[in-house]
Amino acid sequence: MSRAARIHSTEDARRLARRRLPWMVFDYIDGAAGNEAGARRARAALDAVPLRPRILRDVSTRSLEVPLFGQTAGRPFGIAPMGMCNLSWPGADDMLARLAAKHRIPLGVSTVASSPMERMIETAGGHAWFQLYFSGDGVGTFRLVQRAQDAGYEVLILTVDVPEVGRRPRELRHGFTMPFRIGPRQFVDFALHPEYSLTTLARGRPQMANFEMPGYSFDRTESRAKADWDTLKRLRDTWRGKLVVKGVLDVEDATRLASEGVDAVQVSSHGARQLEAAPAPITALAEIRDALGPDTPVFFDSGLRGGEDVLKSFVQGADFAFLGRVWQFAIAAAGEEGLQRLFEVITSELSIAMAQTGVTDLTALER
After folding, report:
1. In terms of C-beta distances under 8 Å and separation of at least 24 residues, what long-range contacts does 351-354 make, across chains too?
2. Interaxial angle between packed helices 23-30 and 325-356, expressed in degrees from 0 to 180 and rounded to the nearest 10
3. Is residue 103 annotated as part of the catalytic site, yes or no?
4. What span, in angstroms and rounded, lies between the C-alpha atoms of 299 and 289?
5. Is residue 125 within 8 Å of residue 212, measured between CB atoms?
6. Is the pLDDT confidence value at 220 over 60?
7. pTM of the full predicted structure?
8. What number is the average pLDDT over the span 82-105?
9. Which of 103, 127, 174, 270 is catalytic?
10. I want to staple 14 with a disulfide (CB 3.0 to 4.6 A). Which of 199, 257, 329, 336 is the partner?
């Protein structure tokens, strides 16, 4: 049986990935802030959201397509922006981009992606959104904004929930840094995972590819605390396309964002990787949806692990959902075949859950 055929759920992908990846890489992908109580709380809150079965409804034909910024997405879930995806396996960025192109779903291309933004949007067939971190004094940040516009990006995701990078002890214990450095401890870790190490050696060490610009380098630990509402106004004036603000958990912040002219609010705790005490995003989603009403698009990410979770986010008010680290687990487990397999698993889970709850069209869902 192939590795991909062993993936029947996201937890299968995670388990297989844990076997194949060096410990420091797995813990970088899998870890959360502090003692990881925030991640557990977010998962418990998702588990506590029920889906109500409905009977004797003709659900023989179900649509998993949803409108998204004037187009039609092939699924109601996309690929969240994730930094340095090629750490999960060499070529992961391109695998994700090809998945986005094939199924017409948005690929979030991170500021700290390990492949250049220009190549990513081309490989994704235009189905790519650029995710932006404000850092330092913002000069380099706005150079990236212009570069994204020149590359043809039509959607910009401003991530606002990392004024300072959260402490993730699992990373710190392994001495994880970006750019990637190998010391004696890391050498032993990689030596005990030869398949990954040899493949990575053959393909080259992952780099933060969007910073190969004269006079600009990126420090992952550099403060991002200077960003404020004036920064948002400047960005809104500069960016010609759709502007999404990601990392929102407060109703007051969400309503002000809507009044400032953003095109969508993305409810997110950054996968519980920044503030351990942050509220469960699925709970905040319902509150923000109620406050904004039906006219402002609301997106959701953080902690989603399968098709039923996606449906739960729609029941709570999301217009679109994003999954993140589970895609990296699938790639680490079984490469591109594993990624496609997990995509099919999540699609199947969602379709079955829709049938069992009497839903044929997510745009007409009863909350």
Report:
1. 351/62, 351/64, 351/307, 352/307, 353/51, 353/307, 353/308, 353/311, 354/59, 354/62, 354/64, 354/311
2. 50
3. no
4. 10
5. no
6. no
7. 0.95
8. 97
9. 270
10. 329
